[in-house]
Amino acid sequence: PNPNSTQEIVRIEDDRTGLGIETLKRAFLDNLFYIQGKFPAIATLNDYYMALAYTVRDRLFKRWITTAETYGNQKARTVCYLSAEFLMGPHLGNNLINLGIYEQVKQAIEELGLNFEELLEQEEEPGLGNGGLGRLAACYLDSLATLEIPALGYGIRYEFGIFNQRIQDGWQVEITDKWLRYGNPWEVSRPEWAVEVKFGGHTESFTDEHGAYRVRWIPHKVVNGIPYDTPISGYSVNTCNTLRLWSAEAPETFDFDAFNAGDYSRAVQQKMASETISKVLYPNDNLTQGKILRLEQQFFFVSCSLQDMIRILERQGIPLEQFPEKFSIQLNDTHPSITVVELMRLLMDEHGMEWNKAWGITTRSLAYTNHTLLPEALERWPISLFGQLLPRHLEIIFEINRRFLDDVRLKFPDDWERLGRMSLIDESGERYVRMANLACVGSFAINGVAALHTELLKEGVLRDFYEMYPEKFNNKTNGVTPRRFMVLSNFRLANLISRKIGNNWVKHLEELHKLEDFVDDPDFRREFREIKQAIKQDLAVYIKRTTNIDVNPNSIFDIQSKRIHEYKRQHLNALHIVTLYNRIKANPDIDITPRTFLFGGKAAPGYYMAKLIIKLINSIGDVVNRDPDVRGRLKVVFLENYNVKFAQRVYPAADLSEQISTAGKEASGTGNMKFALNGALTIGTLDGANVEIREEVGAENFFLFGLTADEVYAKKVAGYNPMDYYYSNPELKLVIDRIASGFFSHGDANLFKPIVDNLLYGDPYMLLADYQAYVDCQEQVSQAYQDQDRWTRMSILNVARMGKFSSDRSIRDYCEGIWHVQSVPIKLEEYVQENA
Ligand code: 475
């Protein structure tokens, strides 16, 4: 064949883009051969997975490149989402859904005699996040692409993501996450766009050729940031955006001193220290540890990303003055808040801009999202540590602070305490840089992630800033992507819904309300119930295979899956289990609605109480699951290694979603939305987005209990004594006494003493105050479940009324309220569309 003939070129193109079954099969085998270097007789499951991943990736590339080209040509206004975490979950299935080729590819793989589900299962997910905050970033990337918004995600390519969790003897054991072990087919490295990041050293001032005062930073070391790009497809659009993650590498030979002095090992150590920056994700959720390496990580990815934006600006021939028109930067919590200072430094020191102009650009470009009210999550860095790592930045912070405090003085004369609270520097003891204050001063918009959370921010942690800048504050209630958390993870329910109301709901989730028309249709209710039943059956099989525990698929699947944290109160759930168990022990013939209690979630490795809560749950399970008196009516299962991949199995199987945090502590929650979207009913407090979920689904379709945030606060102020509850409630007392006695720990009365003591002497999360309301509410749940018809109606109405909680709605809100960015549709050339 003539390689120059159009026909030949089209055929090659077709192998990379074609969507016919035969083409897909040919492309798959071709990738197996030419990329994995294997043929079927010797290929491993992973080889097949990789061949399939590359086959799908090929089909993304035309879209990816065309998207980049279009944005470049149109100089499109772009959202830059800066986040230390992106908890993406497996890419393969999601891309198949978004490209609309799930069925074809499944058929092609099966015609080759392979098990398609097994190949999907083979993908090791990039666990580059801890929980809510990281997963929210991933949902937002999905929605940005789906809404055809020009956007870049910027973060860190951790070599080791969140640890894998094993349960041994009831305890959590952490295993290193080597997610890159077998290669990552979803990333492309771009070493040609590497940037340099400086650390340490000192500063010098000088007068430039125009006689202006300037500062030069002489760093102690320089680290290279190498970008790795991952395509982010939108659903049923041509848009394919980019997630750009930075990996730290030492420059070839950078420590000339050590090297020339023959101190080879010092040179090597320096190299290793540089590359340590992107080695590992800090495994804390809702907590900051104040480690210097964490600050290095934050500055590293922020500096890389800002330099990258300036490079893009230059390539598009846009003057630096127009930075805020070209880019809208969202700070995902304070983790990237050093952006405020680094952008100032780049504009002034590297591009010769004067202060006022640089400050105008900075404060018109940045917006800050707060994700937590917990004081232990507020980031602050000791001044000395900060100054050693970022001497120039500390100077700039002092200057920002000087000017800022002048503004505060003008607005609130003689209010010394206010000045002390608002200062970017905490001077109440050892001096610290306060990153939330920095983010508030440097951003034009500040948002919370649920209505209640935003209100609590305004009257609590950020009150002073609200009084100073009321116009900056706004709410953006979180959302979740229905593509991953319904279409991909619950295709049975998704198909049923689409048969009834068409498939527009996938992009316009409000359309789910049309399901309300079918709530009185007995056939629909039956089908709806049968689907839930089949999925529960599947999870039961999985539980049997992985834990050897038999669970009854007809029991209530009562699930609490989320990071283990005292404020989330997994131990309140445990107290309820023991309550029911005690009732059975006291009266073995008692009428009890069978329940399966499922828990999933990781504890931060250094969080002793959280790890002990895992042990408590498993210990209760060991007793309850074996006790013949229980007659299988209660089962307790801790599901190992809860991650995105596993979550996708869990949400669809839930009857009951546990959202039981102490009111005022959970900023929003997003698992609550995923459960309800999949037809679980919620038992929950008036916390975070639970409030809005209840508003949407109706109070009669939501199991509410517990103190409100105001009541929690008032009780604290009035002097809360958990002992009052303990002594006045015999059932509660028996529960605590049983745990304390060693009943669930082979007679060891010491094992759970820290939990018992914590509850009896202090109870910071007010479990005892909410205990009775919770147990009573659970009784209502059990009653409701007895009436399957009523339950199914409630469940259907939950699904039908979840439209608000699509991340598409959240992203539209951000686009209109903060980013002021419009969609840029991507057109593909003819032949690709013909194939599609
Ligand atoms: C909230 N993580 C959820 C979710 O908005 C909310 C903090 C410090 C260091 C490391 N990780 C963190 C968080 O604060 C976090 O994940 N917050 C969560 O953000 C999305 O739905 O209520 O707890």
Overview of the structural elements:
There is one protein chain. With 836 residues, the chain is an alpha/beta fold. The chain folds into two domains: 75-90 and 125-475, Rossmann fold; 489-721 and 775-805, Rossmann fold (3-Layer(aba) Sandwich). Helices cover 50% and strands 14% of the residues. It is built from 35 helices and 25 strands. The strands form six sheets. Strands 1, 4, 7, 8, 11, 12, 13, 14, 18 and 19 form a ten-stranded mixed beta sheet that branches. Strands 22-21-20-23-24-25 form a six-stranded parallel beta sheet, sandwiched between helices. Strands 15-17-16 form a three-stranded antiparallel beta sheet. Strand 9 (202-207) and strand 10 form a beta hairpin. The longest helix is centred in the N-terminal third of the chain and has 30 residues, at 45-74. Bound molecules: N-[oxo(pyridin-2-ylamino)acetyl]-beta-D-glucopyranosylamine (475). The site of N-[oxo(pyridin-2-ylamino)acetyl]-beta-D-glucopyranosylamine (475) has 21 residues, from helix 7.
Q: What's the CATH H-level homologous superfamily of the largest domain?
A: Glycogen Phosphorylase B
Number of DSSP-assigned strands: 25
Number of helices: 35
Quickly name the level 1 CATH class of the largest domain.
Alpha Beta
The portion of residues forming beta strands comes to 5-15%
Q: How many distinct domains?
A: 2
- What is the end-to-end distance? 27 Å
Briefly note the CATH topology name of the largest domain. Answer: Rossmann fold
| Ligand types | N-[oxo(pyridin-2-ylamino)acetyl]-beta-D-glucopyranosylamine
Q: Mind summarizing the main beta sheet?
A: 10 strands, mixed
Residue runs with pLDDT of under 50 for 5 or more positions: 831-836
Mean pLDDT across every amino acid position: 96
Residues in helix, %: 40-55%
Q: Which CATH architecture of the largest domain?
A: 3-Layer(aba) Sandwich
The computed structural class is alpha/beta
